[in-house]
Each structure stands twice: as C-alpha cells, then as structure tokens.
Design brief:
heterodimer; A: about 230 residues; mainly alpha; B: alpha/beta; 13 strands
C-alpha cells in the first residue's frame, strides 16, 4: 500500500515537473527521423535511439528527481516516516521504467510494427532501463550538484556505450560481452535479425546479474550518502 | 519514555566527537527542551534520536528498547518537524498532507481539520511554492502531528512565525502534552523554552552542563529582590529591595504610599542569563 502511494506520488511529481512533456517532444523528433529513413540507416538509427536514449532516460531522470527532492529537503521528511529505502527505490524505478518501456515500444512500433519476439524485446528494454536507473541513483547520491551529476553521468554513459562500436562494426571484441549494454544491443537486435539461443540466454543472464549488482550498490550508497549525509547537513 | 546514557557521536571522517557522552531522560507527557547555540550538538542529538544518524556510542532506550534495534515501526510512533520546512513545492498543502498520511498505517487526522488548527484552512488548495515561510512552518508542524505520534521532535517550531500563530502553535504543543505525548524540543529561543518546557538541558560543545525546570533555575539562580520604578519630583527613578525583609523595609513602604509607582517586578534571572552564567556562552 505504501509502495503504491509512493508510486502514485512519483508519477504526479514527474508530471508536475514537466518530465513527460520534455520527453514527448523528444519522441516526436525521433518519430520524424525514423519515418524519413529506410534500409540500413533505419536499422542503425532505431537500435541507436533505443540503446542510447529510451533505455537511458531513467538514468538521467532519476538523477534529476533525487536532486530535486534534495533541493526541496523532502528526502529528510520521507525517511522519518515508516518508508524503507527499498520502497523508495522501487517507486522511482517502476515509474521511470514504465515511461522508458512505453517509449521503447513506441520507437519499435514506428520502425518495424509489432516485434515478432515481443517478450524478448520487452525483457531487453525493461532490464536495460532498470539497470540504468540503479546506476543513475548510485551516481546521483555521490554528486553534490547538478553539474557534478551531469559530468559523472556523461563519463559513465561513455563507458557503458563502448559496445556500440561493435554494433556498427568499427571494432569487434569478445571482451564487450562483459558490458551490460552489449546485452542491451544484442536483445534490441531482435528487431532486425534472429538471435541464437546462446545470445538470448547470455544477454538475459548478463542483464539480470548487472541489475542485481547495481541495485545492491544503489541501495547501499543511497542510505550511506543520501540519508546519513542529510543527517550531517 | 526516552533514556539516554553516555551518548557519543562522531561524524565519519572527523577526529572529534560532536556529542561527548551525554545523559538525560524524558518522561512520558513531558516537554523536554534541548537548548544550546548553533553547533552545540543539539541537532545531531535529535537526528540520532530520529534515526537519520546511526553508529552512536552509549545507550538510547525508547520505552525500554535500544533505539538501534527498533525497526521502521518506530517511525509510526514519532513525529518530526525540522527547523527548515521540507515539503513538496509543486503539491498543494492538502496533497502534501494526504501523501504523508498515506505512508502511515495509523489513521491520520483529516487534512482540512489539521489546516484549521493553524489558520491555513483557506490555503489548502494552494501550491506550497506560493506559501510564505511562516505558512510552510505551520504546515511542516501539522505534518509532524497528523498521525498522532507518541513522541514529537520539534526543531525551532516557532521560528519565522508571527506572534498570533506562534501562540496557536504553543497552545497545540501544550494540548499534545495534555494528551500524554512526549515532546523533545530543540531551540535557542529561551522565551519559547521557558513557556513550554517542563525541564530544559543546556548543551554546549557536545556536553550537557545542566538539567532542571525553568522555574527552579530562575529561583535558584535569580536575585531575590524586587525592582520598583517610580516618579519622584517629575523624574522617573528606580530602586531594588531584597525580598527577605520587604514587609519591614521602610523605604519600600514609603514609595508604595506615595502612589507614584510605575512598575514593580521581581528580579529573577531569565533563562538566557542563566545559560550565559552556566555555560559562558551566548545563544546565537
């Protein structure tokens, strides 16, 4: 019940801070781009948009949310109620994952119609989104200012975006499989080609493991650097 | 209700304790004032008591149970009003109260009734971003009491309030005491402490130098005398007389008989005077 209250509150909070308006505008831009290209260019652009934007939106939005709440001092008041850190993170993650997932499905529908392997595509979109949200939380709580957050966020995204060089064929290496984003690109490729059983399984396991690890880090750091740090301020 | 013994706290990375082995207890239905200048350790102590700081030394027992062992159910029993309002600015007052009330399992007071308690009933539908500081402070206080908590932690509750609203808030605090609630009040406003607190503790540099009731302190530390202001030959004069033999003091009796007395006051110390005398520090 408390988790539902938090979720409802988060959605209204995001709406009132115009997060959705901003993203609907960006989606409209993507729509006009994708519907005006074809062939290999369309394949590349679609996967690139899914990989670099719709999946990652939670990463930037969750940082913005935490920094806004920190600015309004509301985190202190939340954590002197029975709310647990896990419930707070659950609410942020679900609200942003739904937005990210809807955006990803919209891009896929515009580009190719309903995906043949919709469940696999959905699993890739959802698990990639949650991974980036946990990462965004971990980075936001270690960043004292908005500028520092965006600097740290850009550094992290550049590191995680490395597997894109494999996708476009610039440089191929087996080492890329350790990146969670390699699994993301692989699962999104289901829109344009058949995946092997190994590719499907390995990608899902990779994303699940990265999610577990990053959730643990996000939860621990949130308590240590956001709640206890609030105590010091 | 709350028993603190040997409480110590040091922030991570610091080489000195902020709270240096303090002892105090707060009984059920008591208003306990924690007084001290900025940086004395009073807010840190409160943050430990409301569990947003962990890793303390010594012991804190709440209803006989060690604080560190209490789960999130503890937060059902406490209400906290921080010194600075912390509300969702793009939500109305009613939305803020409804949201926070949904986080408790206990039934909370109706938001409209709460707002009426502090004269905000006409502003319930206004976004908090349009509230003045005083209005935010009132809403902040209402949020702390809405779930009828057993223990209230109030940090500078009347800061930024006009006298009329400060009066209303003090009356609510007294009413809560009347209902048997335990109130931990952190302040550097001696007038508020003097009026509300059953007992006060003076804290400076992380140590408590004194705990007693404001009345006892004023009697023990004050000067037992009366100060009289009177007019003589069109000039305002003042004189003071010891209380011990005032009924036999001829000069005092003579002044009373002239009918020219303008004011007459006992000369007990103020809490602020006693604080300065005891700690050697001012309350800034």
């Amino acid at each position: 019940m408390r988790a539902i209250s938090l979720l409802k509150h988060d959605i209204i909070f995001q709406f009132r801070h115009r997060f959705y308006y901003a993203y609907f505008f960006i989606l409209a831009v993507y729509y006009s781009i994708i519907t005006n290209v074809s062939g290999v260019a369309k394949d590349f652009l679609t996967i690139f948009i899914l990989f670099s934007d719709t999946t990652v939106l939670g990463f930037f939005f969750v940082g913005g949310l935490i920094l806004l709440e920190r600015d309004q001092n509301t985190l202190q008041s939340i954590f002197v109620t029975p709310v647990k850190v896990g419930e707070y993170l659950f609410s942020k993650t679900v609200s942003l994952t739904v937005l990210s997932y809807i955006a990803s499905v919209f891009i896929a529908l515009v580009a190719y119609g309903f995906p043949d392997q919709f469940l696999l595509f959905s699993a890739g979109a959802i698990l990639s989104s949650t991974f980036f949200i946990f990462t965004g939380i971990a980075i936001a709580v270690r960043s004292k200012t908005v500028n520092k957050y965006f600097f740290n966020a850009i550094v992290f995204t550049m590191i995680f975006f490395v597997p894109i060089v494999d996708f476009v064929g610039i440089f191929k290496s087996r080492l890329f499989v350790v990146f969670p984003t390699y699994a993301t690109v692989t699962l999104f490729s289901v829109l344009i080609r058949e995946l092997t059983f190994f590719e499907k399984t390995a990608s899902l396991i990779s994303l699940l493991l990265w999610n577990c690890g990053m959730f643990f880090v996000a939860k621990k750091w949130f308590y240590r650097f956001e709640i206890l740090k609030n105590g010091k301020n | 209700m709350i028993d603190v013994s040997g409480l110590k706290f040091r922030y991570p990375g610091s080489d000195a304790d902020v709270v240096k082995g303090i002892d105090f207890s707060v009984s059920r239905g008591e208003i306990f004032g924690f007084l001290g200048p900025s940086g004395a350790g009073k807010s840190t102590t409160q943050k430990i008591l409301i569990k947003i700081l962990s890793g303390y030394g010594g012991s804190i027992k709440v209803e006989g149970n060690e604080l560190s062992s209490l789960d999130s159910g503890y937060f059902e029993k406490i209400g906290v009003a921080f010194e600075f309002p912390n509300l969702y600015s793009k939500f109305t007052a009613v939305e803020n109260l409804n949201f926070f009330s949904s986080l408790y399992s206990a039934k909370c007071t109706d938001p409209q009734k709460l707002l009426e308690m502090l004269g905000l009933e006409k502003d319930g539908g206004t976004f908090v971003s349009a509230y003045s500081k005083g209005m935010k402070m009132r809403l902040n206080f209402l949020r702390a009491i809405m779930h009828n908590p057993e223990i209230l932690f109030l940090d500078e509750p009347t800061s930024g309030l006009d006298p009329a609203n400060a009066r209303k808030m003090k009356d609510i605090i007294k009413m809560k005491k009347g209902e048997g609630k335990t109130i931990f009040l952190t302040t550097h406003d001696m007038h508020t402490a003097e009026e509300l607190c059953d007992r006060v503790a003076f804290i400076v540099d992380g140590s408590i130098s004194l705990i007693d009731s404001p009345r006892n302190l004023k009697i023990k530390k004050g000067k037992k005398a009366v100060k009289v202001e009177y007019v003589e030959e069109n000039i305002l004069k003042s004189d003071s007389f010891p209380l011990d033999d005032i009924n036999e003091n001829k000069r005092f009796q003579d002044i009373l008989k002239t009918g020219s007395v303008e004011t007459i006051h006992t000369m007990e110390s103020t809490l602020e005077d006693i604080f300065i005398e005891t700690t050697g520090r001012r309350l800034l």
